[in-house]
Structures are given as C-alpha cells and as structure tokens.
Automatic annotation (TrEMBL):
Domain Glycosyltransferase subfamily 4-like N-terminal positions: 75-213
InterPro entries xrefs: 6-hairpin_glycosidase_sf (IPR008928), Glyco_trans_1 (IPR001296), Glyco_trans_4-like_N (IPR028098)
Domain Glycosyl transferase family: residue ranges: 226-400
Disordered: annotated segments: 1-43
Domain of life of the native organism: Bacteria
Name of the featured protein: Glycosyltransferase family 4 protein
Length: 780
C-alpha cells in the first residue's frame, strides 16, 4: 500500500528528494568545498535579497511544486541571501504554508498586488523570480500581476510555463506587458523561444532557455523500488499528474489488451489526484469512466489508480520503479512537462505523443513518439521495449545522459548567473539624456483645425473625429486661444490660424456671465451650465492675459485687455487650491499689462499665503505636499509657490516650492526605467489611498513641464531643464508602455490606459501636447 510522506525544506530532505545542488552545476557555480556544501558564484555573490512568486505547496498543482523546487535550488545556490517567498492564494482561501512562505497574495485582490510591489521596493529586493501561468493570477488573463510588476524597481526574471502561439486579446496584452517589464524571459524548451521570437517579436538577448529542473539520482535498477510499491517481479508503465481528460489516459488503456499479449505480467500505474477544478464541476466522473473502460476491456486487474497528490520524494521513488513512462497527452501545445523532465532525469524510457516538449526532448532516440490518440502505435512501441531488456536499457541510458543539464544544480547556476547579469546591466544602464530632437520641428496644426469649427474647438474626439455629442467647453477654447497667443510672436501664423483665434476668442467672450465663465455648450450652441469651476475661470483669465501679451491683431488684444480688467474684480471668489495656483501664475504675467501693479502684488501675496498654508497643514518629512494626497494638475501648486517667491523676493518660499516639486518628480518617476510617470486620473477617484498607474493623461504632463521650466527660470539650475525634457519625452514613447502618443498631423492620443494608448484624440490632449512644445521652445 502506498504510504503518505512529507518532505521538509532542510538539507536532509533535499538529498532524499534528489536535490543535489552540486550535481552538474556549471563552473561558475560549482562548489570547490567538500560534498554537501554550496558556494556562491562570483556573479551570484551580489544577490543579497531575492524573492520568488508563484503557487506553493500544500496547494496541489505542478506549478506549486515547481515554485517550491526553484526556491530550494536557488536558496541553496545563494545561502547568504535573504528570501521572500510569495504564494498566490486562489479564491478557495488560504493554505497552511511552511514557514518559508513570507507573503500571501489573494488572487483576485488588485490592491494586494500593489501593496506587494511597495513592500518589495521598500525591502530593497534586488531580483524577483516570477513563475508565470495565466490561470494563477487575478484579472483578465492574470493582468493583476502586471499591477505589481509595473511598480518594481528591480530586475524581473520571468519563467513562462505556457507560451501561447495564438493568444486572445487579454492574453496578448498581458504577454506584451511581461515582455516589456521582464529583464529575462525563461522558457523551458526551444519551441517556446521560437514562439517568443516569431509571434511576440522578443529579441534573442532577452530570452533564456533553461530546462525544467529535475532530481539527481544514480541510474539504478528498478526492481528494488518495485518491491516498495508492491509490484515486484512485474513490468510497469506509469503516467503521473493531476487527472483530467487532456492527459489521454484512454489511449493507453485501449492499448493494454495488445500489450498484455506480449507482457502479461504488467501493471499500469496511474498516479495523481483528479484535478481540483474537475472535481468541483464533475466530481470523480472522469476517473470512474476510465475504470469502466478498463473493466469493459478486461484489463482492470492490470491498472492501479493512486488517487492522491504525491510529494517529490515518493514521486521519484515510484518513477524509479517504472520500466516505461508514458505521456499520451492529446494536444501539442504544451511547452513543458515537469513529469517528463523528472522521468528523463531518472533514466526512464519514455513513450509519448508529440506535444511540444516531448517532440523536442525525445528526438534522436532519447525516447519514442507515437501519434496523438493512436493506441495501436503505443501498444507496438511499448511492447517492443518491454520485450527487449537491451533496447530498454540503452534508451534508459540515453534519457539519463540527455537530462544532465536539467539537474537542479545546473538550473540554479544558470538562473543565478542570469539574474546577477541583469542586476549588473540595470546598475550600469546609462541615465536617460535629454533628447532635444523633439523640438526640431513644430507640430502640425492639422489636428487642431479638424477639431475646430466656426464656434470653437470640440471637446472630445472619437479616434480622429470630432465627437459632436459632447459639444464644446470653455476649458478647451481658452487653451486653444492661449496656444495661438503664445506662439504669435515667434511662430509664423496664417490666415486660417487667425480665423481660429477669432473663433476661440468669440467663444470665451460669450462664456462670460458678468461674474464668471460658463464652461459647457452642446452642439446646438446651448449653454449647459450657469458657471464653470474655479479652475476653468482661472484658466480662461490666463488666456486673456496671454492674448494681451501676444502679437495677435490689435483688436483681439484690446478686447482681451478690456475683458480682463472686468474679470480681475471677481477672482477673489475663485478659491480652490489649483485656481489660486493658476491665478498666481497669471497675475505674475499681468504685471505691467493689466491692472495696478501694487494691487497685483498684494493679490499674489495673499494667494501665496493661502497656498502655503496647505504645506503647513499637511506636509511632513515623508510627504512635503499641500494636500493629504496627490490628485490632478499637481505641479501647478509648487510652480505657483516658486513664482510667488520670485515676484515677492521671498527665497524661503521659492525653496519650499522647489522642495515640493522635487518630491513630486520623485513620485512621478519610474524607479526602474527612470522615465516620467504622471499621476493617473484613477488616483484622483480613489483619494490617493492607492497608487494606480493608469490612466495617464497629457494634461498632467503639460502642467509638470511648465513647473520644471519655471523652476529652471527662477533657480537657473540646469537640472530642471533636463527634467522638462524628460517629461516631454513621455509624449514620444518614453513612458510605461513605450509607445508614442503624438501623430504626424499634430494629434495626440488621450493618454495611457492599462492596455496601451487611448486612441481617441480630444481637444484637451491635443492642446496639452502643443502647449508643452510651445512652453519648451519659449523657455529654452
């Protein structure tokens, strides 16, 4: 009777399970000390803190076993490293994990993935080993894992347990993200590497082929192991794994009558519990159908079902009691099979269908391949092996020799060396340098023209089309007017652009109610509100000042000055923090053009005091900010403090603004890639309690560029000029998705979503890009 055993994680149990970490290790990790001790490779010595994520026993699946085995071999190869072992919990709940498991992540809790990333970064983990299978992580096709990986500032070595040739849309998005975020992609077969190159266009330098790890035991006689399992004196076949229809067990059961004609003393061992998902939906109906088939064929006495999940030590023993290992799987799309790797490493002759791993591993006489579902072919090949001890012995030796590189020691050495190389590459990666080529050619105005009519610029776009369902808004028309005004002195205009300036100015003029500016108008030119937000009103006032200071036609400048003189009397009522920040910026530019200079300075003083009060109320050493959390248009706040300090001659105020801006830039920088990562709109909705990465929008980029340029102008510190270039590069593809948001006709996509670009082109995005370019040209 088969007895239950447990396998610990100490050195003694490693040896009993076949984990000889010194066996066949490459020179870089092969120990020079006495047997049983493991030295660290020169490369691996740099790895002091590492982590691994995947399923973990007692969860019953092959990936859990693999994750545990990988942890064992890697921790033995790096005995001085601190390890975090992160176990994924399925919706059924938590498990009674061993002490080595330091973290548990509920599969369907996206916030848990974000917390894990923050924790790994805080603990200064140097490398993360990811075991990837689509079914174990939450979200569409496991997309919640990406929520974690996108936030990490360390190399990520991802082992792909499945590489799909024809992924669906969700799977393709997740794979694209894994490819982008991983420093190395490990596949266990050359076929997987081929798919990565041809289907996913992964560069060769990012791919590493490492065989599935396998135990190291001497090639020995099967008979002494057969006695342990009660099959002494018999020939044995074996199939192992969670039982499910795709295993093809029926193919072998149907072959048994013919095999028994030549080898009557035969037992077929079918080892493994039924897959938990199958039990949940069908109970043991599938196993019962196999038993019924065996009974109908008269072979039930030659089959032994071992209906449980075996640990490694017992699996290795029962494999060594096996004369022929059979994997009659029904489909080819399996990149790797752990049980096949184990069988070959123990020198078991294998007869298999040509799924991808088997077709590759069993070539050149290492094993035997039979067509899918062909019971007659299996009967013939199995009988040939069972009736010829010499033939079987020779194949056993070929299998054992073929699998030498898959011994756990060699696998550990390869992973450690690659992880260390990835760390060194990351440490020596050149820092991004400002790309001034982005300013060589002014953006085309074609996109802005197609989004505008004689009323103004449309608010939203549907791809490249103006979306008339959403009409117009003052926010966008005042920005469009500012853009033309700011470019009027140094960019050659045109009659068409002048016509647009009059249209935008007419919209702004009509928006004024006598106290504030209305914002939303439908396509029928009906106002939908009685007055816009404080921010909208402040931005519109800014457009008036920009027009006054411009080289636009005299009548437009006179109109803008007259309206601005009226508006300035009402700005005290606009008291949101961002409207105050915008007003400080606008008033500083109104000096000498609109209003009384002394009055304007007094207003700037009062507004800056109110703004600075936010720092007094909310800032601390770890959060030097004006509010409890970041939200939208964040860079406007420190920029306003820098401007006010400059106008008022208050250096302490300038220093406070610069310090807040430095902190904000750190918050908006990807620690790993160094590229700009604007605070996303989803963070506004969640009150800053979490740190989502998307949606990222151009307006936040524009605000940050303005703030960096202001800091450069006031402090003359070239760091801020470089920062402005780095932020501008976000539009050109130096971002989390590595995709450009701008188009040849001067268009700009509406931002970055978890899936990539939002391909709509609304006015806000178009103008944010054009205003960013204009600000860069005007200040540099």
């Amino acid at each position: 009777m088969l007895q239950e055993k447990t396998v610990g994680l100490g050195p003694e149990s490693l040896a009993s399970s076949g984990f000889d970490v010194t066996d066949t290790a490459p020179p870089s990790v092969r120990p020079e000390t006495k047997a049983g001790q493991q030295t660290v490779s020169p490369q691996g010595g740099r790895i002091k803190r590492a982590a691994i994520i995947g399923n973990f026993p007692p969860r019953m699946c092959g990936l859990a076993t693999f994750t545990r085995d990988m942890y064992i071999c890697l921790s033995q190869a790096l005995p001085k490293a601190d390890w975090r072992v992160i176990a994924m919990n399925d919706p059924n709940g938590e498990y009674d994990y061993p002490d080595v498991v330091t973290d548990q992540v509920p599969q369907n809790d996206p916030e848990a993935y974000r917390r894990l990333a923050a924790s790994l970064n805080a603990s200064e983990t140097q490398v993360l080993f990811v075991q990837h299978e689509f079914g174990i992580y939450g979200g569409p096709a496991g997309s919640y894992l990406i929520e974690c990986l996108e936030r990490l500032n360390m190399p990520i070595v991802t082992t792909l347990h499945t590489v799909l040739e024809t992924p669906n849309d969700d799977q393709k998005r997740v794979m694209s993200a894994l490819i982008r975020l991983s420093s190395t992609l490990v596949t266990m077969a050359e076929r997987g590497a081929k798919i990565l190159r041809e289907v996913y266009k992964v560069p060769e330098t990012k791919i590493l082929v490492v065989p599935h790890g396998a135990p190291s035991r001497p090639l020995g006689d099967t008979e002494r192991f057969k006695e342990v399992f009660g099959v002494g004196g018999q020939k044995t076949l074996m199939t192992f794994g969670l039982l499910s229809p795709n295993k093809g067990i029926e193919t072998i059961i149907k072959a048994l009558p013919d095999i028994l004609d030549t080898t009557p003393d035969l037992t077929y061992l079918i080892v493994g519990a039924t897959h938990p998902h199958l039990v949940a939906s069908q109970g043991e109906a599938y196993r019962d159908s196999l038993i019924n088939m065996a009974r109908e064929l008269g072979v039930e006495d030659h089959i032994r079902f071992v209906n449980r999940f075996m640990d490694d030590a017992e699996l290795i023993d029962i494999l060594q009691a096996t004369d022929i290992y059979v994997t009659p799987y029904l489909t080819e799309t399996q990149i790797t099979s752990g049980t096949l790797s184990y069988a070959l490493a123990l020198g078991r002759p294998v007869v298999s269908t040509p799924y991808w791993h088997a077709a590759e591993a069993l070539a050149d006489g290492v094993g035997v391949i039979c067509p899918f579902g062909d019971s007659m072919a299996f009967a013939r090949e199995i009988s040939n092996l069972l009736t010829s001890d010499d033939h079987r012995s020779a194949m056993s030796q070929r299998a054992y020799d073929y699998a030498r590189p898959s011994r756990w020691g060699a696998v550990a050495g390869t992973y450690v060396a690659r992880a260390a190389a990835d760390m060194e590459m990351a440490a020596n990666a050149p820092k991004p340098t400002p790309n001034k080529d982005y300013l060589t050619r002014p953006p085309s105005w074609e996109a802005i023209a197609r989004m505008s009519d004689d009323c103004g610029i449309f608010q939203h776009g549907k791809f490249r089309l103006a979306d008339r369902n959403h009409g117009y808004c003052t926010d966008d028309n005042c920005r469009a007017l500012s853009l033309i005004a700011l470019q009027s002195g140094w960019v050659e205009g045109s009659a068409a652009r002048d016509r647009l300036a009059y249209a935008y100015a007419g919209f702004v003029n009509h928006a004024w109610t006598g106290e504030r500016f209305r914002n939303f108008m439908d396509y029928g030119r009906n106002w939908l509100d009685d007055g816009g937000s404080d921010d909208c009103c402040a931005r519109t006032f800014e457009a008036l000042i920009d027009t006054v200071r411009s080289s636009l036609p005299d009548d437009l400048r006179l109109w803008a000055k007259e309206l601005a003189q009226r508006v300035i009397s009402y700005i005290d009522a606009w008291d949101s923090q961002r409207s105050r920040a915008i007003l400080i910026r606008v008033l500083s530019r109104a000096l000498g053009h609109v209003g009384d200079n002394a009055d304007i300075r007094h207003r700037i003083h009062d507004l800056s005091r109110l703004l600075r009060n936010g720092l007094t109320d909310h800032a601390n050493d770890s959060h030097p900010w004006f509010e409890p959390a970041l939200s939208y248009d964040n860079a406007r706040l420190p920029e306003a403090l820098i401007i006010a300090g400059d106008v008022l001659g208050n250096k302490a105020m300038v220093d406070d603004g610069v310090a807040a801006l430095k902190w904000l830039m750190t918050e908006q920088t990807c620690a790993k890639g160094g590229h700009f990562r604007p605070v996303p709109t989803s963070r506004f909705d969640e009150g800053g309690q979490t740190t989502p990465l998307f949606d990222q929008q151009p307006l936040e980029v524009q605000a940050t560029i303005n703030a960096c340029l202001t800091a450069f102008r006031v402090t003359q510190d070239s760091h801020w000029k470089d920062e402005a270039f780095r932020v501008l590069a976000w539009f050109h593809g130096e971002n989390d998705h590595g995709v450009a948001l701008i188009t040849d006709d001067g268009g700009c996509f509406d931002g970055l979503t978890p899936e990539g670009c939002n391909h709509n082109q609304g006015a806000e995005s178009l103008l944010a890009y054009h205003l960013s370019w204009t600000a860069m040209m005007a200040n540099l």
